[in-house]
Write a structure and sequence with these properties.
By secondary structure, this protein is mainly beta. It has four helices and 36 strands. The strands form eight sheets. It has a twelve-stranded mixed sheet. It has a five-stranded mixed sheet with strand order 2-8-7-4-5, with no helix packed on it. The longest helix is centred in the first third of the chain and has 25 residues. The relative contact order is 0.09.
Amino acid sequence: MLNFERTFLSLFLLCSLLFSCSNDSETPEDDSNPITDDEPIAVDETPPVIVLPQIPEILEVKTDLRFRIEDESDQVSTSIRLNGVEVFTSTEKDFVFTLNPFDYNIGSTKLEAVSSDFDENENTQTLDFELKKLLLRDPNPVNSLAEDVFVALNDSEHKLIAHTKIETLDGVDFFADDGFEEQEMVYTKYISRFSEDLNTPLFLDIDSFANIPPGTILPTKEEKVIPVGLPYIVKEVSISSNHTPTIGSYNAQLLPSGLVDNIYSFNYVEILDDQPDIMFSRPFGVDDIDQYEYLFIEDYDQDTYEVDDFVKLESVTSLSIPQGTGVFAFSVDGYYSEEDYQNFRHHLVYGNRIDRSSLSGNTVNIPVIPEFEVFSKELNIDLTENKTFTTVQKGVDPNFFIPDFDIEDNGDSITFQGDHDYSAFGFLYQDLSTFNQIIWVFTNSPTDAPLPIPFDGFEFPPEIKTTLSLRSIPTDVANITENTRMSSTMYKFQSPTDYFSIVFETQDFKNNRGDEYRLRYDF
């Protein structure tokens, strides 16, 4: 029996050997180095490299933080933790984490970025900073300290959040505590003149800007586009003309002396006298262009102008006036070039105020001055008893354009119908017996939904309340029923821009010199 087992084992080994040799002879040789059980598999032992973003020592506004992960593995996982609490994760190697201060508590903050790869190598990098919640920063709340100025923030319900009196020319910052609910706000400037002397009339100028988001930083003086106030050269000139002479331009003014006929104060900016100003005379209040006369001031040292210095028009053109009621006013400006037009270097060519009943038709005549390459026109007209339309347009083509928009009074709210860029409520209080006066403009972002009249329940700073109370002026101005006027105006520009840029830029420099349309409703 034992011999049989040995014989069987020998035959099995022989067959296995023959089969193996047969396979070797049929398979091509493989020159590559085979992996044997003795070679170790390569393992990544290098942790990911975390490239952190630049972050300020004090983070006070919503900020996008970009992280970059460098690792041989395609599979990485990164966790962002604030003070030990995970707030964000990503499997990307390049990602952005948006940190909103209003989502966390203020104070010292540690940010940890923890990243691991496929082989569970882990790396941690940290950033330390202080977290604050900026509501608003105004680098230039005032240009001078000649008046009492308070600035304040109110919440969306018009309750007072914070306020301060401006004591220096430095900027002002408003910050929120942890309990503040993130919401749009109203930023208000109160300019009070002669507020301490009760025997002197009070003038209170209020500007409110609604829909301001937390974290707003207003532009500095250097960043604002504003006209530069330049000193005038003032001289006395004698002018003999058939009608009252007029100058109105970016460079010069002409004012009657009030003492002697034909003697005027000619005021101009010396460094801007590189191009002549236009002086014209014509009848006022009638459409009689035939008597229009003009001259160009070439020599700014000249101090006497005679009747013969004025010349008659060679041609006129007509403007169509939209349908309306009563009296309307219009003016035309001339510009020597397109560059002058874009930079507001205007020269008044014609201005008049006319009763529609004196017109034969719906057109008015205006002068054609060939020296000017570009013109603009402005019209102010009562469309109905309580709606006034104003437009400023480039060119003197026959048609003034009125956009398809309207204002509807709902009693306690206003609906603005049609495309517009922003709206503004106006409040005027003027007591003629004491000469106390309040002017309040309340500006809002565009909306098609009914907008509540904003003066109701608006909380003033305590100092402003005291100033009004000492003069027996109700502190809730919406309840003042005598000596007041209220209005609402919607604004539309030829090329719409964002609301923030509109309300915080100088009026004349909005919209890069595009056409402007305004519709005012008087309550």
